[in-house]
Amino acid sequence: MIEFKGVHYPKSVILHAVFFYLRYAVSYRDLEEILVERGVTVDHATLNRWVVKFAPLIAARAQSRKRPTANSWRMDETYIKVKGRWTYLYRAVDRDGQTLDFMLSERRDLAAARRFFKRAIGSNGVPDRVVIDKSGANLAGLQAVNAILKFTGGGRTVEIRQVKYLNNILEQDHRFIKRITGRMMGFKSFESASATLAGIETAHMIRKGQIPANGTTAFQTFAALVA
Q1: pLDDT tens-digit profile of 173-224?
Q2: Are 147 and 59 members of one domain?
Q3: Do 86 and 164 sit in the same domain of this protein?
Q4: For residue 4, what are the contacts with CB-CB under 8 A and spacing of at least 6?
Q5: pLDDT at 223
Q6: Keywords for this entry (predicted)?
Q7: Were 78 and a residue from 16, 25, 33, 174 both cysteine, which residue would form a disulfide, CB within 3.0 to 4.6 Å?
């Protein structure tokens, strides 16, 4: 269970505020005004602290509870501005568009690609194949992972395919994330960006039905991840 000790607002208010910010294209000041209309006075700085604190905790729960995914992956990066500079959001979905994993990185290189693949495999298992673009860094990163798998995974390795059109489903999926982040006017710190993106990805997974809902609403599914 995620603890809410030390906060001065009811848990339900915090969860509604965090979910609303992560799911819809609003700024903190927009959300501040919306809450005032509902009789809740909370400043935008406090809203930011709630998102940064609770979004990654809820995201970790979502990863452990998401439905099984397919063994054919699509991987690519998209750009996110942090402190006025472009950073790289590594993302992977399966052939059906279900989210596998994501990672914000300050660099787009071999080390980042290898770290992402190891992370995604750690949370989803070894795929049969991965489709990537023509990026040499992504190819080298996946080849490095295959070298490790060859000696530790019983000889099983991942088939690598560099076919751009097969990644169209991931390009479409990027658009939801960009639509939400576009209203945020950029991030002020890498920590804040990473935490917020983890929450946005979680809200997107709920939207796609990846978290068992048992007939509940999207917010109720989100709130259930706290328990």
Answers
A1: 999 999 999 877 679 999 999 999 999 999 999 999 999 988 789 999 999 9
A2: no
A3: yes
A4: 11, 14
A5: 95
A6: DNA recombination, DNA-binding, Transposition
A7: 174
| Identity of the residue numbered 168 | N
Query: Who has greater pLDDT, 1 or 90?
Result: 90
Q: How many residues does the chain have?
A: 227
CA 189 – CA 28 distance, rounded (Å): 15
CATH classification at residue 138: 3.30.420.10
Cβ atoms 118, 110 nearer than 8 A = no
Residue 156: per-residue pLDDT: 84
Residue 44 placed within a domain = yes
What are the C-alpha distances in Å from 216 to residues 173, 200, 207, 213?
Answer: 24, 19, 12, 5
In three-state form (DSSP H/G/I as H, E/B as E, the rest C), the secondary structure along 74-108 is EEEEEEEEECCEEEEEEEEEECCCCEEEEEEECCC
The pLDDT of residue 135:
86
Average pLDDT, the chain: 93
Does residue 165 share a domain with residue 88? yes
Total domain count for the chain? 2
